């Protein structure tokens, strides 16, 4: 979930379409990865936490002052994760070195949420593995990691689980358009490492007025179909995983 001044208002909003799977959203993580929108206050609602980071599209802003500001925010008890950080090859090539510097310089002491997006490879396989090698230089094997908006193949799941046993794979509405290879990866993710997300307000579903966390049930429905599971089971499983991961 991205920044909202009033979580309840967003959760109750009319999304403009009928949901196939209605869920009661009782928690989540609000992500602030643009210095322009870093939080000055934190959600009062129980079950909701905050992540702060520096999106790879914003790495040009990185300097010692921003680094100190970010470290200060990470000390707040309502901040439950570092992120997003990562690698985005759709950005100009001259930013790539800085993306890698940010990723390796900010030492994670909380779960770290990673954004990984290649320009050409729809599954970003090579970039996931490049990011894995960078993370190995800066994080303990016990580090908790979330691969946000995960679109990778089985080999990526296996490699990350081997290097970081506490690696979680978070699926969004993009899963509706997965190839067979990506569906196989969904099935390969360990049950206790599966997460779902909506990336709201982004990734607005077709026919909807807006994207909100209300669409979590739709994502769960897609993932359940790939894993030959019940939607209710996926919802309960990912709820349990997220509360344990983020301490919500």
TrEMBL record:
Gene3D superfamilies xrefs: Metal-dependent hydrolases
One annotated GO molecular function: hydrolase activity, acting on ester bonds
Keyword annotations: Metal-binding
Keyword Isomerase appears in the UniProt entry: no
Binding-site residues, a divalent metal cation 1: 84
Family annotation (Pfam families): TatD_DNase
Annotated residues for binding of a divalent metal cation 2: 115, 148
PANTHER family: DEOXYRIBONUCLEASE TATDN2-RELATED
Family: Belongs to the metallo-dependent hydrolases superfamily. TatD-type hydrolase family.
Protein name: Uncharacterized protein
Organism listed in the record: Dreissena polymorpha
Lineage summary: Eukaryota, Metazoa, Spiralia, Lophotrochozoa, Mollusca
